[in-house]
Amino acid sequence: MKTLILTRHAKSEWGDLLQKDYDRTLNERGLRDAPLMGLRLSKRNLHIDALISSTAKRAEQTTLLIAASLGFNAERIHWFDTLYHASPSVIQDVLMETDDRYDTVLVVCHNNGLTDFANALAGDVTDNIPTCGMMAFTIDTVCWSDIAMAKKTLLFYDYPKNTGS
Prior knowledge:
By secondary structure, the chain is an alpha/beta fold. The chain is 29% helix and 21% strand. Strands 3-2-4-1-5-6 form a six-stranded mixed beta sheet, sandwiched between helices.
């Protein structure tokens, strides 16, 4: 059995309209939400074996803040340029190449691909995973390469403004 946690990057800054989208950093809310969601995740007692992230600045910051909240060694994070605004098929391709020794994997990337991928896994759960939102699934397989055909079950869906967590 595998566990997959899909995470949208935290809220980012829009102040500099001349800045490239790829280089946008987290705003104050994002800097607050990412550690909060990392702490919420740590309370779920899931042992994260691998962190996989887009290399865009806002995703990088989100990943590093979550990793710090989890006590996850930042040197072990797997960075993928291809996850920047990735389509669902690219996200799936990255996961299919993931080492099978990793049972619980957290992926940080971007919408719209992230929401579309999550809905493809669990049926239409949401029209938009909010910034720093997390959607987790159990996947009935021992090999990440089998993710497309394996049975998937929604484990939890959480986001910073969710007061029920």
